[in-house]
Specification:
By secondary structure, the protein is mainly alpha-helical. The protein has five helices and no strands. Helix 4 (97-108) packs antiparallel against helix 5 (115-135). It is globular and about 50 Å long.
Length: 136
């Protein structure tokens, strides 16, 4: 959608570069770095990318850790450099294949994915997890 609004507002285009409690924000997509402030509207790919990062944070579990690949990046400029090069978090040991595939697709295919597809996949992952828990 190219109507100027972030559909789920994970990556708000008004002030995306503010430092977070974890340091330089790692949820900003390469497109947002490229287009923000240059007269471009918000793109759904901003949110899809941010959704993948949010999913990584949720799977990490503490809410206080940065992905290892971003650990030493202390400035927005340093973060931008690696994100634009395509550096994404490494897989966490606790992440299922299905969940890792979903995260990876959010980062790699963000410009062609729709949020409805991600929600459907996330529901399937949840159902599989619940089924596994109930079997134990």
């Amino acid at each position: 959608m190219f109507d100027g609004t972030a559909k789920i507002n994970l990556a708000k285009p008004e002030s995306p570069y503010n430092m977070t409690p974890l340091g330089a924000p790692f949820h900003i997509s390469p497109e947002m770095y490229q287009y923000h402030g240059r007269g471009h509207l918000s793109y759904i790919s901003y949110d899809i990318y941010a959704f993948g990062m949010l999913l990584w944070v949720l799977c990490e579990g503490t809410g206080t850790a940065r992905p290892e690949v971003y650990k030493d990046l202390e400035t927005i400029e340093a973060m931008q450099e690696v994100v634009v090069k395509g550096v994404v978090p490494n897989r966490l040991p606790v992440v299922s294949d299905a969940c890792w595939e979903l995260m990876s697709r959010c980062w790699d295919e963000r410009e062609s994915l729709q949020m409805e597809h991600l929600v459907t996949k996330l529901k399937l992952i949840y159902e599989a997890c619940m089924s596994e828990i109930n079997e134990k």
